[in-house]
């Protein structure tokens, strides 16, 4: 199940002891996880992470990122399940897809990808 921005804000507030404030267009939390600006993701895999042409491990690799590498995460799409996580992120600098199972967005919400899906540079 994919969490929503509201659910993520609630969880973030719960764990940080923050205070929630409701608005007429949704919910916001102090220290909101949806903030402005680019979402930077960090590679958490124990070995080099393959960045793929499509959101599946069966797709050709377009790049490999070392653990700890950071890249801008543009959007998310549901794809092949990896370690219990079916979501894949489009990474800006590499121009490819990486499993969300191996990218830490540091609590930031990643928007859904528009259709048609992004493709390489």
TrEMBL record:
<keyword id="KW-0732">Signal</keyword>
<protein>
    <recommendedName>
        <fullName>SH3 domain-containing protein</fullName>
    </recommendedName>
</protein>
<feature type="signal peptide">
    <location>
        <begin position="1"/>
        <end position="21"/>
    </location>
</feature>
